[in-house]
Each structure stands twice: as C-alpha cells, then as structure tokens.
Amino acid sequence: MKHTRRAIFTALRLVTLAAACITSLAYADEYNDVGQLVQAGKLNEAMTKADNYLVAKPRDPQMRFLKGVIQGNAGKLSDAINTFTKLTEDYPELPEPYNNLAVLYAGQNQFDKARATLEMAIRTNPSYATAHENLGDVYARLASQAYGKALQLDSANAEMPPKLALIRELFSPSNKGQRPSTVLATPVAIPVVSAVKPVTPAATPTAVAPSAANPAKADNRQSVVNPTAVNQNKAVETAIYAWVKAWSTKDMKTYLNAYSKEFVPSGKQSRSAWEQERRKRIMSKANINVKLQNLSIAVKGNVAVAKFRQDYRSGALAVSSRKSLELTKSGEHWLIVQESTGN
C-alpha cells in the first residue's frame, strides 16, 4: 500500500522543540527570526541565518534542530535525517529529535525505522505524549501493511477487508481536520519561539467583605472563596516544589518518595527499572537546575492535576517543555501517580 509523503506528515505529529533547547534568553531573538522566516516560506534566508549562527555556536541544539526543520521544509529529507540523527547522538536525552527523525522515516515509508526511533524517544522520556501518539500511528501503518499482505495471500479471508478499511479510514484526507493543529499537512511548520517570561506568583484568594449596599451580591462573592480548596491547592504546590528541589539537589530518596506506589512508568519499564534509570541519569549530572513557570493546579477531591512549563538545565544543556502531573492524596501527602510531557 503506497502512502504519499503528505499523508504521512498529516498523520504524525512533528514537533519544533518549542524553545526546548534555549541556552540563554539572549539568543531567543535569533530563534524567533529563523522561525519567522520559515513561517514566511523564506527558506533560503532562514538557512543562511541558521548557518551563520552555527558558525559561532556549532553545537547549539536549538538552532541545529531548526536547521533540520528548514531542510525538511525544503524537501532535503536526507539532509534533515542526517541533522536529526546527529542531534540524537550529541543530545540523546532529548526526545524531540528522535520524534522528527521518525516522522521523516515514516514519510519515506520506512515504518520499521520510524517505530524503532519513536521507541528510543519514549525510552529517553517515557512521559513524552507526542511520541506515544506517533508510535500508535506507526503501528497502525504497519498493521495496514500486514493486513494488506494477508489479503493478498488469502483473498477469501472475510475478516481482513473490514480491518484494512478501518485503518485506511483513519488516515483518509477527510479525517485530516480532526487532529490537533500541530498535525502538519506540509513537511513541517514552526511557530515563533518566544523568550520565556518570568513567573509572576499568583495572588492568594482572599474573602470579600460583605457590602451593605448589596448583601446578596456580597454573599455570592464570598461563597467563591473556599478555604479548604485554597489549602489543598497550597499543599499540592508545596509537594510539587519539594519534588523539584529534590530533583535539583539530586536528593534521590526524596525525589523517588514523591511518586506514589501506584505510579506506573510509561513504556514497558518496571518500577524498579525506572527507579534505577532515574538514579543513573540524575546522579551522572554534575549539576541540575529545575524551575517551573505558569503553574496551574486543579483539585477535585483527592485528585489533583498540575500543569506548567518546566525549565531544565544541566551544564550546557537547557530544556524547556510543557508538563503535567496527576497527584493523589495519601494521608497528608500529595504523591505523583502520572506524569506526561509535551501536552
């Protein structure tokens, strides 16, 4: 079954690192400029600007990533594959280059390579939602090929046509608009990469004094403030920042204790294998600095969902990504039961 490159890019989600490797806010304008040129279709100018930047900073992961994006847009797929491959070699802890490399492989109908590359992305970051989604699409493509082959070998098998039709319907052009806006019909498009803004602490809600002029309105305004909910949000926030501090200080006992016994690592890792890998990865770093921005918390009963932008820095590597945590209350403690990145 032959698939067009356009259909592949429609189905799979190509990422842009979303400021994921900005090593200094001073360089954000450079990334912005290149991104805007790509959006405007001025690929030659974008490539010139990227190459000029890389002369002075040849290992910069963000600009190298953008260069791969430009190459993909220009149809230079072998060059783009080479760029993303070298990024995975130099920065194996970043899942985004693996993801885009897999999309390029899928665009060439190399679904086995795409599958293996996405599995590497997930092994690098088991909570990377985009890679999991793309892996599901690649599995569907592989299934389509297998069903098609089975039908060729046994045309009388009545079970195969409905299965094949179902998968073809999933990737039909009529379904293109049902996926998120980050699904790309063209090889790649990149949003403007903006500088990270400092966090402005949210004000703690306070009760509103009754108004003699409008007692009913005053009662309604007071009822909005729930002291218990405020306290619960604060407790969740405290737990999250304790987890961040333990990660930054490489306090493995506190870090691992932040996860509930109910926490199940993504992928197919056992809990013990996941803990061993986390210890190895964290303790191997000379220094780690983790900060959160735009933290929002929603508590419902004994379950809380926290969403934020996580800025991770270790040595020359700086990674910024969207992240969400689900926590449950265990006694007086809020513990992580699920985490995901990129959504």
- Indicate the mean pLDDT: 74
Total beta-strand segments: 4
Taking the alpha carbons of the first and last residues, their distance comes to: 32 Å
Describe the main β-sheet briefly.
4 strands, antiparallel
Label the structural class.
alpha+beta
CATH class category of the largest domain: Mainly Alpha
The CATH superfamily of the largest domain is known as Tetratricopeptide repeat domain
Question: Rg to the nearest angstrom?
Answer: 23 Å
Structural domain tally: 2
Q: Biggest sheet: strands side by side, in what order? A: 1-2-3-4
What are the segments in which pLDDT stays under 50 over at least 5 consecutive residues? Answer: 1-10, 18-26, 173-225
CATH architecture label of the largest domain? Alpha Horseshoe
Overall shape? globular
Q: How many H/I helices?
A: 13
Helix content: 40-55%
Query: What fold name goes in the CATH topology slot of the largest domain?
Result: Serine Threonine Protein Phosphatase 5, Tetratricopeptide repeat
Strand content: 5-15%
- What is the N-to-C succession of helices and strands? HHHHHHHHHHHHHEEEE
